[in-house]
Amino acid sequence: MELEERVSELERRLEALVGERPDAPSPTGVDFWALEGLKQQLEGAAGGGVLYTGAVRLPTGERYEWQYGALTEQLLDGRDGDPEEAHDAEEGVGRAPAGPDWADIAESFAALGHPVRLRLLREILGGRRTAAELAALDETGTTGQIYHHLRQLTGAGWLHTKGRGRYEVPGTRVVPLLVVLAAARP
Q1: CB 134: neighbour CB atoms within 10 A?
Q2: 74: exposed, middle or buried (C-beta count within 10 Å: 0-12, 13-18, 19+)?
Q3: What span, in angstroms and rounded, lies between the C-alpha atoms of 21 and 18?
Q4: Mean pLDDT, residues 66-80
Q5: Residues 6 or more apart in contact with residue 65 via CB below 8 angstroms
Q6: Model-level pTM?
Q7: Helix 115-125 vs helix 143-155: angle between axes, to the nearest 10 degrees?
Q8: CA atoms of 94 and 92, how far apart (whole Å)
Q9: What gap in Å lies between CA 148 and CA 29, rounded to an integer?
């Protein structure tokens, strides 16, 4: 390989690495269209809020579109609910419904806290749906250990059974799972 080709290849690789996780630019302009839209929706909400959304197509061809938003106050106070209801609450019309305490959410996070469980979720999203297919994977443990992990994920709502021995990530959990994984990246 000639020097020029080598340099070009190194530049291409560097661009790919930087493109995967660029430094965060300042939140203005077209790069932050979702943020700008959220700020418009939150006018009058003193503490602001968060929004996560996604439109995904899995390797299996399944498509999911999903979004969820919450006011900062709701999240910090342990309340959950529709941001519109919370906005009405500020105007004295009502109060957002009480939601789970942060401690109640720990089980959901704990279920994701094992590398084998994350691998099982990835494989299920990729199309391996039966316990037999999952048990055939290398480095996932014994059949009993796999069933233990599947029970943990099912109990936390990250999976549900579809027929005998078939598992799937519920449609309402696909985008939130991918958001949690993206947020957990260093």
Answers
A1: 22
A2: buried
A3: 6
A4: 82
A5: 54, 55, 56, 175
A6: 0.71
A7: 80
A8: 6
A9: 47
Q: Which of 173, 168, 121, 171 is nearest to 146 (CA)?
A: 121
Structure tokens at 172: 């309402």
Encoding tokens for residue 54?
A: 């996604």
Q: pLDDT higher for 158 or 84? A: 158
Could you tell me the CA-to-CA distances from 169 to 22, 59, 85, 120, 150 in Å, in that order?
Answer: 30, 13, 29, 10, 11
What are 42-54's pLDDT values in tens digits? 988 888 999 999 9
What's the average model confidence in pLDDT over 132-139?
92
Token output for 182 = 């993206």
3-class DSSP string for 113-169: CCHHHHHHHHHHHCCCCEHHHHHCCCCCCCHHHHHHHHHHHHHCCCCEECCCCEEEC
Structure tokens at 18: 């930087």
> From residue 162, how far is each of 54, 99, 123, 154 by CA, in Å?
24, 28, 16, 11
Amino acid identity at 38: L
